[in-house]
Please model this.
Amino acid sequence: MRATASRNVHGWLLLMPAAILLIAFTHYPTVATVIDSLFSKATAIRPSRFVGVLNYQRMLDDPIFWKVLANNAWFALGTIPTSIALAILMALFVNRSIPGRSLVRMAYFTPTILPMIAVANIWLFFYTPDIGLIDQISTWFGFSGHNWLGDPTTVLPAIMVMTIWKEAGFFMIFYLASMQNIPPELEEASQLEGATRWYYFRRVMFPLLMPTTLFVLVNAVLNSFKLVDHLFVLTKGGPDNASNLLLYYIFETAFSYFETHFAAALTVVLLILLSVMALLQFFLLDKRVHYR
Amino acid sequence: MFKGIKWLRIGVMATALLMATVTAGSATDLAMYYPVAVGGPLTSVVDGIVDDFMKENPDITVKAIYAGNYNDARIKALAALKSGQPAQLSVMFSIDIYELIEQDAIVAFDDVVETDEEKAWLDSFYPTLMENGRTAGKTWGIPFQRSTIVMYYNKDAFRAAGLDPEQPPATWDELVAMGKKLTKPDGSQWGAMIPSTGYPYWMFGALAMQNGQVLMNSNGDTTYFDDPAVVGALQFWKDLGEKHRIMPKGTIEWGTLRQNFLEGKTAIMWHSTGNLTAVKDNAKFDFGVAMLPASKRRGTPTGGGNFYIFKKTNPAERKAAMRLIKFMTNPENAAEWSMKTGYMGVSPAAYETQKLKDYVKGFPYAAVARDQLQYATAELSTYQTGRVRKGLDDAIQAVLTGSKTPAAALKEAQVQADRLLKQYR
Model:
């Protein structure tokens, strides 16, 4: 009995450092944010007081909030499938033994190691109308220059392109590692049976890559909400909120307008959104993921 | 005998140590955040001025911390206030004044100055520059890096288009007429560029004032966004791109504008005078600087950052902070700062120093911002300034990208501003 008790204490003590960090930086802030969102902003003439769901009602009436949610949905839809597909393609390409394979792998991975703010500053000049790189190349081919970041219809796709460029290399590495683990006998066997390469990919390779796909999918979903650093440099929310994303809106509300309680309400929405998506992914994909 | 000497020695050493700590403790430590919002290696200039101050005042140590742009500087300074390591003073956006007062973060200089000489010092700056720093009868901010918008123009491009390079446009009509001559049909050169990202409300403040109406009152509780003159100014801005075609349609990026001008992509650019030195050092063509053109009259908002002293300080720190501010804004240092950046000398005395007099004689464009001060007004600043400003920014960008008409967009911005400011009236 005594031995069990002291072992329990020993166990808890070993868990303590991680638990403290987790509680201090994850659980406590989450609870504090939810509580914060139920209060009003303190002004010079009135201190902060409990207002229940008033912040949430205000959020539902805020047209910018809906615009921002829509933008984020488009952004997620645009970046997630594309970057995963591109990552798989790149991994397939560098999986074979081609000359200069290491160089190509390094080239594909380089965007990931560059800091986001540096990347954004470079792409700011890429997208500059007329004198930027993109417009210089397109005028070569006869198209006229375009104000990529200043046109509300092209600003979000332009940001998506930059994000895909940055992310795909990171996901490629995971796919590459996974592909290396697939025994080559499977491919040889499928060739012997007369299966096409596409059939082999669809029915053998991709299901075997499912654990990686689940991991990459979760990452991509998180990134589509997390990555807003480039907005500070490129568009600051874009022409009339055309490129405003939820996390950037939260940052603006909290630190430019000093409305920390309203920002807390927005943050709760973001947390709920991300949790729902994470749960969906784990439960929906669970049956299709074959672990070995 | 020996025991006594041992205790004597210990006693002497202890006293000496105590005295040393006491004299060391009377030094004041100041931490200061400051932003850099224009091009150039300005952190080294600030460090230089701060080092000179510490040489002259060995009892004060100053740590000047570069904090990014105005937004970042404000966020960092306020975050430091809430943490255990507050700064004692900072350079922040001149328009943050109402927000800082509401957060109870700053003290008025009237509460720190004591002698008559110090009180007179508060009045030694250009009155227009003090507009953004004064409210409720008190002074809260002292000008440091102040600017106005000026019009840079490419004299070589003027000559090539058959225009007199010494006669830049002085009215809106001249701007349109000259812009049409300067715009090349193949799109390789535009007549003018007025940036509409970054700080669109600032540029708009100039256009509105030129059309006869400023954007807000001096109490920070009323805005005039839907005044007909203001709507007319936004219509003019939109027409420059849509109707007269002397400017690209849509929004024009603030961050790449200077590069556009230096590469000859535009013959005229409206930008902060704080870019003057950077343009001077990098322009490969003959360029000029002029006041902004007039419609009903000339006009420009002032811009830039002021010194603020935080409330979370003790009297010794406030006094030391004021000494630092007095040093950094004294005529000699203000002149030095103006020459290295292009920001204005903040007091008439700065322009009376020999080095600035010589500099202006050799490079007259350095005085354009100062001469324009007589036509200048305060930058857009109200309570809830972040939201009010964002409403106006969104309206301007919506109009320039064609999704709303000027009247509708500005009415929406005014309604939102009224809703936010009603409680302060």
